[in-house]
Amino acid sequence: MGVPRFDLSLSDLQSYRPDVAEPDDFDAFWAATIAEARAVGGGMTVEAVDTPLRTVDVFDVTFPGFAGDPVRGWLSVPHAADAPRPAVVEYVGYGGGRGLPHERLSWVSAGYVHLLMDTRGQGSRWGAGGQTPDPHGAGPASPGFMTRGIDDPADYYYRRVFTDAVRAVDAVRALPQVDAARVAVAGGSQGGGIALAAGALCDDLVAVMPDVPFLCHFERAVGLTDRDPYQELVTYLSVHRAAPERVFETLSYFDGVNMAKRATAPGLFSVALMDFTCPPSTVYAAYNHYAAERDIRVYSFNDHEGGAAHQWPEQAAFLGARV
């Protein structure tokens, strides 16, 4: 049974462009973070995997992420590709991992090189698992990932994840199978929020495709939905009653709205108007601040599943027109 719409009307959403707190040193913080990760360096390994797939070559990739930590991914390449191809780097939804290589074949079947990044520390809530640990930790946190290290932006969990996302783009651009000038990023929910960050922090992407993105307009989200993962922040703040100012200051460095303001590549969003997990106004807050060419697909009667399988052909057409 469906749930009623609970957020702004579509006409109000289309003009919803809220002021979201942005720290003065936002750009300096991220420039230093990415520079530090790149300076650490570290080697990438690409190992062929024997699978039943006959039209796709699969590789188990490990590349250096935040602090040089090893991050895993599945690299899928059209079999016997005879020239460098455009690539899509994809990020995973909250709690999931990279799973198994035969689970995500759409992009490679369409002729793209596809890198699916494992999310550090996740991969044990749904799907077929993840294999990338997060060796860092700081301070008290509520269960989940949203409040890990939230006392300080430098220690916050998503600083590591967003840095991994940039280094995933760096890694795929270094592959001989890839045309480094034709790389796009994509993801749904948490993966969409990570894609927005990668779009802000990577140069010269050809497209950014966040699907029902999470990690946008935190202050509105926590007052609008009682669902996890945003509810993890509410739980934390209900215990740490003096912490809201500090918490939201930390989150401002990671807000998808502030990332969207720095977009340079064309963006294709999706939103679901009955989405209680990532409320539509939080998605539109990022979309309406998106600084580059943008478009959005609206699913009026859907919850957080959004367009599901209907959205990928929209993304494929959007990207195909730009590569």
Write the layout of secondary structure elements.
Blueprint lengths: L9 H5 L11 H15 L4 E5 L6 E9 L5 E9 L6 E7 L14 H4 L3 E5 L39 H17 L4 E11 L1 H12 L5 E5 L6 H7 L5 H10 L4 H9 L3 H5 L6 E6 L7 H10 L4 E6 L11 H10 L3
Parallel strand pairs: 4-5, 4-6, 6-7, 7-8, 8-9
Antiparallel strand pairs: 1-2, 2-3, 3-5
Helix pairs in contact: 2-4, 4-5, 6-7
The shape is globular
Distance between the termini: 41 Å
CATH architecture: 3-Layer(aba) Sandwich
Q: If helices are DSSP runs of H or I spanning 4 or more residues, what is the number of helices? A: 11
Please identify which CATH superfamily we are dealing with. Answer: Alpha/Beta hydrolase fold, catalytic domain
Q: Estimate nothing, just give the exact number of structural domains.
A: 1
For the largest beta-sheet, the strand count, sense and barrel status come to: 9 strands, mixed
| Rg from Cα | 19 Å
Q: Decide which structural class fits the backbone.
A: alpha/beta
Indicate the CATH topology. Rossmann fold
Low-confidence stretches: none
Give the CATH class. Alpha Beta
**Secondary-structure element order, N to C:** HHEEEEHEHEHEHHHHEHEH
Mean pLDDT: 96
Strand content: 15-25%
Instruction: Tell me roughly what share of residues is in helical segments.
Output: 25-40%
Q: How many β strands by DSSP?
A: 9
Widest sheet, order of strands: 1-2-3-5-4-6-7-8-9
Protein name: Acetylxylan esterase
Domain Acetyl xylan esterase: 5-319
InterPro entries: AB_hydrolase_fold (IPR029058), AXE1_dom (IPR008391), CE7 (IPR039069)
Region (Disordered): 124-145
